[in-house]
Amino acid sequence: MSAPLRFDGKVVLVTGAGGGLGREYALAFGERGACVVVNDLGGDIKGGGKSSSAADKVVEEIKAKGGKAVANYDSVEDGEKLVQTALDAFGRIDILINNAGILRDRTFGRTSDLDWDLIHRVHLRGSFLVTRAAWNHMKNQKFGRIIMTSSAAGIYGNFGQGNYSAAKMGLVGLANTLAVEGRKYGIHCNTIAPTAGSRLTQTVMPPDLLESLKAEYVAPLVLWLCHEQCQETGSLFEVGAGWIGKLRWERTPGCIVRRRNQAMTPEAVQQSWDQICDFSNATKPATIQESLSTMVEVLSKVDTEKGVVPNPTSAMASAVSDGNSPLAAVGQKLPEMVFSYSHTQCILYALGVGMSTHEPDHLKFLFEGHEDFSCLPTFGVIPAQASMMEGGLGSIPGFNFDLSRLLHGEQYLELYKPLPTSGKLVSQAAIADVLDKGSGAVILLDVHTYSGKDLLCYNQFSLFIVGAGGFGGKRTSDKAKSTVSPPDRAPDAVMTDETTRDQAALYRLSGDWNPLHIDPSFAAMGGFKTPILHGLCSFGFAARHVLKQYANNDVSKFKAIKVRFVKPVFPGQSLQTEMWKEGNRIHIQCKVKETGAVVLSGAYVDLHGTEDSVSPEKPPEAGGLQSDLVFEEIGRRIQTLGAELVKKVNAIFAWEITKGGSTAAQWTIDLKTGTGSLHKGPYGGKADVTMTLSDEDFMDVVLGKLNPQKAFFAGKLKVRGNIMLSQKLETILKDYAKL
Ligand SMILES: CCCCCCC[C@@H](O)CC(=O)SCCNC(=O)CCNC(=O)[C@H](O)C(C)(C)COP(=O)(O)OP(=O)(O)OC[C@H]1O[C@@H](n2cnc3c(N)ncnc32)[C@H](O)[C@@H]1OP(=O)(O)O
């Protein structure tokens, strides 16, 4: 047998404790060691009158049994006074039983304002005021137990008790929120709906029944819920006659009755009524998050043909059992999708794939005023994806799958023209094939995106639906764009970038609203501990690494990219892109640096005419110098040259000083860092930049008064083309080194 539950040292306030249930609670707590504040106004059951005798009697009973108790005769509407009595007598308040109540039963049509207000003032407002007075004390001591007293009349409704049922259900709502807010302070709040013989029920129940519904059959539940060992909170119990049951919400799987771009109609509701009300496969949401996750899911599935919010277990396989084979979907077209965008979307996308103003060569993708402002080539997936997310993959028969099971498997993107930085594009998507991979199903989705009549790009999405294989489909398809293994040698170049903790939160703003990337409970449904990064975000990182390494960030050089997503990436991890150059094809493989896990495999980027472009194997001609110096170092050295060298610099460089007062200086700088990887300099690998400074600013740089980088960001130093460090400057620096 378990040890008796004791309340020694705990202070309990019971409202309405002069009789019935309240008295029973007060006596029970007193017997088990608690110090009890016995509150009772001493009024009649309709709220009239006032007397101290009821509370005094109970206090005496407790004391007679050796317990500690004091009386309080205030109305619960004077909440502070009740709690003050506890503090004055015993120095604290640990447990609060909101029990006081009155009745003003009326059929609804005859309910007066007073009937309504009085009931609300005592039950709902009274419980609020006493609880609020106790709340901060409980919070500070990191312990509290609160009981709200509801009623079956509220839960189920009862003839003649409209005012009472409304107040009683109000208490359930209040308790639910107190449980949420109190959790981190050790404050638990539960609600009971007791059925017992009391002053309130003696008028509505026959005497025999009253006899068997003793108050002593309710008190033990209240004591247990208030004990420090009990972890229950936010729950609702029906209790009476020695029986206790817990209640919870149950919800039908429901039905989406709205279609994108169409009004939601009452007729649609009517047609789906049976399904809306069908409790088969009902869920039991227990938190507002669980409730809302359904809404989020609904938003991403608003186009589903059947409109059913799927079960986590249902997927393609269940579609097959419906006699609705996914194979029937092959060749089906999705509704045409129009995607309008401006420079904002291009910039947001660039930020989403990790571009940053820390890297000056990223500025052309982040600043719409930049003279070479460009849209990253991989932005080409965005209008195409919009056609699936919004245009409705779910409108295809047999595609009633669960979004939390959908992983991006592979991606192919081919550009026919550089993407404009704004425009109105139209995408046409069709299911190219559906494959049965055993552990999952793969949907191949081809999307062609047009600007007017011009075909801008082609995407092939491979969507992997985990657990949806085994429907008897083929395993491979000649429609699939294949992955290609990299050459069997060490990579020619490696580039690493950190993703941030908020990378997915940022990337999703470009249009992939899949909750898998942001909502922990949704991710958990997909089997992930935390939300994962969008595959297309890692894809964007890898693509821009190649663009920088082998194409000098020149978007016109980009032709195509293919990637397989082999393992999830988590926001905050670092992505390391290994690159192998084979002609115009750059093979790539991406790893998570922290774990070494390969996350993108069989991948490649095809470029236009890389033979002529800057490559790591071919250093730039331009009279350049193989120097380990990064740009900051040049700036630092120039500054340290100091005033004495100014004349020498001017003599050797033969600065062209125009009469208008501006000087054009061309430095030939190889930003190679000495490690063989060329991405560390502030202008990236091999940037050719002409820097133009006014005479004054140049002299300030030389004299160390102006940091070249600061000058650049202040807009004083205009950068165009390539940074080059001339032989002449090399000579200067060498001379200087000898000094
Ligand atoms: C409606 C709107 C649509 C919008 C789309 C955008 C949705 C996005 O929001 C979703 C995302 O971004 S998810 C994030 C990115 N993706 C990932 O993280 C997936 C990572 N990959 C994996 O976990 C596994 O490879 C996994 C789970 C995919 C497969 O692993 P396994 O089940 O262990 O498979 P395995 O046993 O290795 O192989 C079985 C067969 O499947 C093929 N295969 C493996 N990985 C594949 C992949 N990534 N893509 C395509 N096929 C893949 C294998 O080749 C094998 O087939 P076969 O035997 O014929 O070769």
What does this structure look like?
By secondary structure, this protein is α+β, with helices and mostly antiparallel strands. The chain folds into three domains: 11-247, Rossmann fold; 326-491 and 521-607, Thiol Ester Dehydrase, Chain A (Roll); 631-738, no CATH class. Helices cover 31% and strands 20% of the residues. It has 23 helices and 22 strands. A ten-stranded antiparallel sheet has the order 9-11-12-13-10-15-18-17-16-14. Strand 19 (656-657) and strand 20 (662-665) form a beta hairpin. The protein is elongated. The model is unreliable at 303-324, 611-691 and 717-728 (pLDDT under 50). The protein binds 3R-hydroxydecanoyl-coenzyme A. 3R-hydroxydecanoyl-coenzyme A (HDC) is lined by residues 385, 388-389, 393, 406-410, 437-440, 442, 462-464, 466, 475-476, 512, 514, 516, 532, 534-535, 564-568.
